[in-house]
Amino acid sequence: EDQVTQSPEALRLQEGESSSLNCSYTVSGLRGLFWYRQDPGKGPEFLFTLYSAGEEKEKERLKATLTKKESFLHITAPKPEDSATYLCALLQGGSYIPTFGRGTSLIVHP
Amino acid sequence: NAGVTQTPKFQVLKTGQSMTLQCAQDMNHNSMYWYRQDPGMGLRLIYYSASEGTTDKGEVPNGYNVSRLNKREFSLRLESAAPSQTSVYFCASSEDGVNQPQHFGDGTRLSIL
């Protein structure tokens, strides 16, 4: 059973249609949760780190939030250039090796 | 500002051939990692190195070896390539300290025929 589950696997939006991506986790002792963006043919690019429930981070049209069981990446009024795969990863316990989710593929149509 | 550089970008091998994937970072990071990414499987850790001179197995180490040549460079070797090793390979590095994000290269796309 995956410790980190991302949903949906794929999401198609119209330009300007706001939505949210979900990253739920079952681990205990969460130390940090990361969000990355991955463009086709590229490596993941770091977006945010969240450390504790209730924390929020924003960057342009993206806002990441964290609860005790899940994180959301909210995309407000998306543009076609926001199309990418979004990955979440978390650190737990004493390990510094993150556990990655399988990602959500986002396509924003003009 | 190069960050993490991987070579080659693409490679096609025949079953049984060997090759080394190269990775170098210019951010003075101690920790370096090798992942493979397959459709529907996400990123899976092959090996990592917490510092120069140390390496440890990750989730899927079988069929691979690594060398931490110096602080900058971390190579991944396939001694006898198999079709199951067809994948995209990513190298990453991170700063010391708690909760540091990883910085990734752009990957090597490897096909084993």
Tally of DSSP β-strands of chain B: 11
State the separation between the terminal residues of chain A, measured CA to CA: 37 Å
Shape type of chain A:
globular
The major sheet of chain A is characterized as:
6 strands, mixed
What does this structure look like?
The complex is a heterodimer of chains A (110) and B (113). Chain A has strands spanning 4-7, 10-14, 19-25, 30-38, 45-50, 56-59, 62-66, 70-75, 84-92, 99-100, 104-109. In chain A, strands 2, 4, 5, 9, 10 and 11 form a six-stranded mixed β-sheet that branches. In chain A, strands 1-3-8-7-6 form a five-stranded antiparallel β-sheet, with no helix packed on it. Chain A is built from no helices and eleven strands. With 110 residues, chain A is an all-beta fold. Chain B has 113 residues and is an all-beta fold. Chain B has no helices and eleven strands. In chain B, the strands form two sheets. In chain B, strands 2, 4, 5, 6, 9, 10 and 11 form a seven-stranded mixed β-sheet that branches. In chain B, strand 9 and strand 10 form a beta hairpin. Chain B has strands spanning 4-7, 10-13, 19-25, 31-38, 42-49, 56-57, 64-68, 74-78, 87-94, 103-104, 108-112. Helices cover 0% and strands 51% of the residues of chain B. At the A-B interface, strand 4, strand 5 and strand 9 of A face strand 5, strand 9 and strand 10 of B.
